[in-house]
Amino acid sequence: MVPDRTHACASCATRFRGERCPRCGNEAALDLRSPRERVLLVQALSGVPSAERRDGWLSRGIAGYMHWGIPGVAALVFVGGAASVNLAFGLVVAMFAVGVQALGLVVVGGLLFLAQSAIQSAAERRPRSRTPRKLSPVAGPRPAGYRTLSGTIRAVTPARSPLSHAACAAFRLRGEAPLGAVDDAGGARFALELADGERILVDARQAWIDVPVREAPRVVRPDAELRRFLEERGLAPESGPVRLAEVRLEEGDRVKVSGPLDARADADGYRGQKTTRTIGGPEVILQPLRGPAPPVSDASDA
């Protein structure tokens, strides 16, 4: 949802700027610009087990023998030694006892190896239960001039939804793909018309689009644009269904915009100049409003 938060931590499910997680201190952050690392993140958050190294039959056999074979051999040596002493140290009996010990070693070791392998294989096949987690943003401290403004979307330089291909001021997609959950959004530049008629220029291309998706996801057939959108997020729909729902903010919708308020000077005629207030950057939060238009709000967001 926020393009410049290029790294994520799979341990605490956060998205941030830089390579070190500001929440848990994890330095092994995953780079969201890498398709391979996006896949690893999706697997970690959605509960899909990643590929793990499994020991071969030789290492299993050695582990089984070390765990069970040595005590078994010690017991056989004791029994065989006792039998040899009780039979007056007869050479034939002693050789027979040694043979029994060797045969017992082979048989017991083989049985223990098979038992250890069967137990370990059954444990590996057992399904693992994990709870899917949602990736949340970690924003830095709010910059000076952070404000919350309410108004109506006007004069949109539109974005394009990858699902419906409709032009809009912002969109959000939610649902699921074969590799994990989908929850992403995009924004555009537009003018926010306040209750007193003033227009604030808003750049929501890096904004956090906080718009609820109320419709149930439906099965869709990804076209080239939607497939590219999913592939960029490590969710390439190679197999299985894709279920998505969409919500859009369009011209005329009433919204609340929070972010750093700035001003820029624009030319007005040959020598004139006018000042236009602007809001933009990764700290911006865009939310929809319902009900009648409220009075203009230009207070600090405590």
Brief summary of the model shown:
This protein has 302 residues and is of the alpha+beta class. The protein has helices at 35-46, 57-86, 91-125, 224-231; strands spanning 7-9, 14-16, 30-31, 136-137, 146-157, 159-160, 167-168, 170-177, 180-187, 189-193, 199-203, 208-209, 218-220, 242-249, 254-268, 272-280, 285-288, 299-300.
Topology of this structure?
Blueprint: E1 7-9, E2 14-16, E3 30-31, H1 35-46, H2 57-86, H3 91-125, E4 136-137, E5 146-157, E6 159-160, E7 167-168, E8 170-177, E9 180-187, E10 189-193, E11 199-203, E12 208-209, E13 218-220, H4 224-231, E14 242-249, E15 254-268, E16 272-280, E17 285-288, E18 299-300
Parallel strand pairs: 2-4, 11-16, 12-17
Antiparallel strand pairs: 1-2, 1-3, 5-10, 5-15, 5-18, 6-7, 8-9, 8-14, 10-11, 13-14, 15-16, 15-17
Helix pairs in contact: 2-3
State the shape.
elongated
Strand content: 25-35%
Low-confidence stretches: 49-55, 126-130, 292-302
Which value, in Å, is the CA radius of gyration? 33 Å
Order of helices and strands: EEEHHHEEEEEEEEEEHEEEEE
Describe the protein in words.
This protein is α+β, with helices and mostly antiparallel strands. It has 2 domains: 57-125; 142-300, no CATH class. It contains 4 helices and 18 strands. The strands form 4 sheets. Strands 5-10-11-16-15 form a 5-stranded mixed beta barrel. A 4-stranded mixed sheet has the order 3-1-2-4, covered by helices on one side. It has a 4-stranded antiparallel sheet with strand order 9-8-14-13. Helix 2 runs antiparallel to helix 3 (91-125). The longest helix has 35 residues, at 91-125. The protein starts with 6 loop residues before the first strand and ends with a strand.
